[in-house]
Write a structure and sequence with these properties.
2 copies of one chain form a homodimer. By secondary structure, chain A is an alpha+beta fold. Chain A has 4 domains: about 90 residues, Beta Barrel (OB fold (Dihydrolipoamide Acetyltransferase, E2P)), CATH 2.40.50.140; about 160 residues, BirA Bifunctional Protein, domain 2; about 120 residues, GAD-like domain (Gyrase A, domain 2, 2-Layer Sandwich), CATH 3.30.1360; about 110 residues, BirA Bifunctional Protein, domain 2, CATH 3.30.930.10. In chain A, about 30% of the residues lie in helices and about 25% in strands. An 8-stranded mixed beta sheet of chain A has the order 6-9-10-22-21-20-17-11, with helices on both faces. The first copy, chain A, has a 5-stranded mixed β-barrel with strand order 1-2-3-5-4. Chain A has a 5-stranded antiparallel beta sheet with strand order 12-13-16-14-15. In chain A, α4 crosses α6 and α15 runs antiparallel to α16. Chain A starts with 17 loop residues before the first strand and ends in a 6-residue tail after the last strand. At the A-B interface, α3, α4, β6, β7 and β8 of A face α3, α4, β6, β7 and β8 of B. β23 of chain A pairs antiparallel with β23 of chain B.
């Protein structure tokens, strides 16, 4: 070992001991006769002292040390005269007797400090230096801890971690697969898994009963901000369970993770149906850290002569507490904000609930004070509140008002960091009709079971009936972020086959792609269901950070590139030939 | 829940309780008035009783249950009159009150028993049924337990598990990569990692200090028996360590795994140099469960007139204890065995050490009893032993004699199942000369450090000097199987660059492929080293089983195919077009 202790370990009790430390030169302060150096490693910082009077050569050598030099020292621990209560080693310092430079360092392209001066691209190119910064290191260490606690909990509950294969088969359903050409099977390809879905179901057929895996998954999608082509799931499946059992098990896991990583005791998670979530929040992943639930005004605004309301399928609003004091400028900005193409509302109606009990609205021409009072009652609005109303086609208007609610929630500081509000959203539709492709899509995935009571209607119903089918599908939402989702699965061949029919598969396609699964259902498949958590997302939500990239050691950028290793890259012709492939794109210079 | 208890849980203390169980119909025995059914799940078996007198309909329904039907029952626990001491639930049975068939099963294509009648291909095609067999399930559960104990140990030692990327860059060095075409970066490819080697070294540069990961790795090699294109490693790296620190840490891990999974306390692991391993066993992974070390006879056989020995670089043998009684037929068979092309020896000389103190050899014409007595002394052979001797070129002959030693060890029952002999093999050469390509290859990998004292010779030496360089590289061998290997790494840019030169990289190639790593070495790279264990192999060695496939839930066959899901497969032209690819091979019908 190049050290007897780490740089975060020494305390007053070590005073008088001779120790060796190794680490990075973090700070160098020269006070004429004395030189102080902070040496740093993953565990902390320790102050080193060099004294001109004791050893001028050694002190001179110390002064020459550059930032990020890797050094090893031997010295004795002593009490500091000038203690630093902000760091755990702040009571002591090391009187250095010998110094070895283990490696030098060029001047880093950005500062290795908590707040760095490096831009995003530069930090990604030198990610190994970015990862040396304490906040980034803490995130990665947090992730490791979260994985350990996940495994601890699930192991204690008799879950078995089973590794499923990475080289599997491409299926056109769902997102785009990454594929892997097979050299030994010319012209054929493996695909990287988008999730271990079918394998975990097969493990239930095999009798593994409780499965989990913390596993990489892959999706070749156009990368929106904060999507990664490779991401990590906590993937779980259980046999002989109903929805209730799964919710309880994974609510337990989530509570355990909050307790062990943040020391937060979460109360039991509220539940809400998908329909209610859309009605009350315009979203299937509502941020319930704050109220501002939707109130539908249609009965109160009928036949007012205000044509915008009269012709709208839905008139719906939220009440922003204490926002009546917003200026005309603020309200105009908000109106412009909702009219941006990203939101797409035509306009915004607002009602100020004045402190004197009167109301001032943008629709005073059409609604008198009594009418506005009725609205205020519907919202339970208090003097000083601001009512914001949108109108239009139901689905679109709800989506727009969801954006307004979140935006205003931010403005009012209602989405508090450090506060956590989990919510189970239940009873998702089984199928959703897609106008573009003129067919049904699975809302969750094609293996999701309809609710038991809906099965007869699914087997015999007409088109409209299909739209009304509900699934035993559920999402876990925290602070408006979907961190997990799952369902009870189909375990009956005929029902699975019917579902593939509804999703537009021909019998041949279904057999070709999922024949092995339907076959498995014929040999004693138990009832089963499961859930998958987005592990990267879970890390970021627990830390109140938006970007998942902060919790991935070596993330890719929005073009799917690893800027550090410069991948993807061209491969040589020999490799292509072995794979029986030709590239049709022209090589860029 | 479809059950109140599992099928392995009920004991006498539950007698009188009403319980519900769910599981698979395992055995059905009909005794006229009574029907006994064993219901099975992952946890065990429980006996169910149906009585014609109590409920004729229920009993009739039970009789009709087929093998592997999934059933749910409700009933009451009672003491068995006829106890079965072989199973944990053998004291009780369930008097069934209601029976629900949760799913039916066709007759499985092979029996779901500990010993099955299914052939390899059939079991792989229906792997989900094969995995339902208890011994296979136990293997997969063992693997899960081994992973948990690995993480427990390393976590307690402050190791951080960090996920490294799967979509990386192809490097022509080493084995063949699986590549992944990038859609967003036309004509470019990612590669799947053969190991996270460079990433874990970068994590050391980042200051993570102690890293591990249980991680899938990929190699597109022609699959010999028991190789898999995807396999799992316990991958580890530490900073500020010497070889000794790594050996101690991972000897500790290995002891922990043996203790917690097999309840075996391993004594401290012996160590042997690479040179000694080759000299004494003809292999860098000797099976040290038994002796039969090589004895070199050259000084004893000089100028005998026996031309085979006289012209041989090496005359070397082993002494097989108690094998003097082998018949002429057995010895002829052994001689033929060594002459097979797989072994390739020209012939085999043997000396029987008779019980009366005389010797009978195949070379009595050239060597008298006194000479043979000298040989016997060199082998420390006792009356009743058999000395087996090969001669020829040193490397080849050692390899051949290694095969002989292992083969005879098997014949004599010296390679005992349940006995474990770990061994550290140390001081591997840094480079090996490859006659075919007329260049050096890295014995371990290009990032391995030469021993400190060899660095000056490496920087300045000639060709012959390079062959003599030793590395801080080590393998952990158990029972003749290499289960782990690693090295102290280079952390200096110039030394790394010199190594790439020696390995035949041009400056441009080295920069193009590993520029990021050499760049990282310029910004304060600490001394570091690590090790990787073959996790699949570790599972199989701990269980005394040869095949790693028995410990992989969904393995591939020797053609790299997953027979269950039938992958790899052709993908459609649209997918190829999006990837800017054309397949040059003809599609098979």
């Amino acid at each position: 070992m190049y050290r007897s202790h780490t740089c975060g370990e020494l305390r007053m009790e070590h005073a008088g001991q001779e120790v060796s430390l190794s680490g990075w030169m973090f700070r160098n302060r020269d006070f004429g006769g004395m030189t102080f150096i902070d040496i740093r490693d993953r565990y902390g910082l320790t102050q080193l002292v060099f004294n001109m009077d004791d050893d001028a050569d050694l002190c001179a050598a110390a002064r020459k040390l550059g930032r990020e030099y890797v050094i090893q020292i031997v010295g004795s621990v002593r009490e500091r005269s000038n203690k630093n209560p902000n760091i755990p080693t702040g009571d002591i310092e090391i009187e250095v007797k010998s110094l070895t430079i283990l490696n030098e360092s060029k001047i880093p392209p950005f500062t290795i400090e908590d707040e760095t001066d490096g831009g995003d691209d530069l930090r990604m190119t030198y990610r190994y230096l970015d990862l040396r910064r304490s906040p980034v290191q803490k995130n990665i260490i947090f992730r490791s801890k979260l994985a350990i606690e996940t495994r601890k909990y699930l192991d204690a509950q008799d879950f078995i971690e089973v590794e499923t294969p990475f080289l599997i088969k491409s299926t056109p359903e769902g997102a785009r697969d990454f594929v892997v050409p097979s050299r030994m099977n010319e012209g054929q390809f493996y695909a990287l898994p988008q999730s271990p879905q079918t394998f975990k179901q097969l493990l239930m057929v095999s009798g593994f009963d409780k499965y989990f895996q913390i596993v990489k998954c892959f999706r070749d999608e156009d990368l929106r901000a904060d999507r990664q082509p490779e991401f990590t799931q906590i993937d779980c499946e259980m046999s002989y369970v109903h929805q209730e059992d799964i919710l309880n098990t994974f609510e337990g896991l989530t509570k355990h993770l909050f307790k062990t990583t943040l020391d937060i005791d979460l109360p039991d998670f509220p539940r809400m149906t998908y329909d209610d979530a859309l009605r009350l929040y315009g979203s299937d992943k509502p941020d319930t850290r704050f109220g501002m639930q939707f109130v539908e005004l249609n009965p109160l605004v009928e036949n007012s002569g205000f044509v915008v309301f009269d012709k709208s399928e839905l008139v719906v609003g939220v009440c922003a507490p204490g926002a009546a004091s917003w200026t005309r400028k603020q309200l105009d900005a908000l109106t412009k904000w909702v009219q941006r193409p990203q939101i797409g509302a035509k306009g915004l109606v607002y009602v100020k609930c004045n402190e004197d009990g009167t109301f001032k609205s943008t629709v005073d021409k059409f609604f008198d004070q009594e009418a506005l009072q009725n609205w205020a009652n519907a919202f339970d609005a208090k003097p000083g509140d601001l009512i914001l109303i949108l109108a239009g086609e139901t689905d679109k208007t709800r989506k727009q008002l969801n954006e307004v609610r979140l935006h205003v929630g931010n403005e009012l500081g209602l989405r508090k960091k450090g506060e956590f509000k989990p919510l189970w959203v239940l009873d998702f539709p089984l199928l959703e009709w897609d106008e573009d492709s003129n067919r049904f899509h699975a809302m969750h995935h094609p293996f999701t079971s309809p609710k038991k009571e809906d099965i007869p209607r699914m087997l015999n119903g007409d088109h409209e009936t299909m739209k009304s089918l509900r699934a035993d599908a559920y999402d876990l939402v925290i602070n408006g972020v979907e961190i997990g989702g799952g369902s009870i699965r189909i375990h009956d061949r005929d029902l699975q086959s019917r579902n593939f029919d509804l999703l537009g598969f021909t019998k041949e396609e279904a057999e070709d792609q999922f024949g092995f699964l339907m076959g498995a259902f014929e040999y004693g498949a138990p009832p089963h269901g499961g859930i998958a958590f987005g592990f990267d997302r879970l890390c970021s939500v627990l830390n109140g950070i938006e970007s998942i990239r902060d919790f991935i050691a070596f993330p890719k950028n929005n073009q799917g590139r690893d800027m550090m290793i410069d991948a993807p890259a061209y491969i040589d012709d020999g490799q292509l030939k072995e794979l029986s492939l030709e590239v049709t794109a022209k090589k860029e210079a």
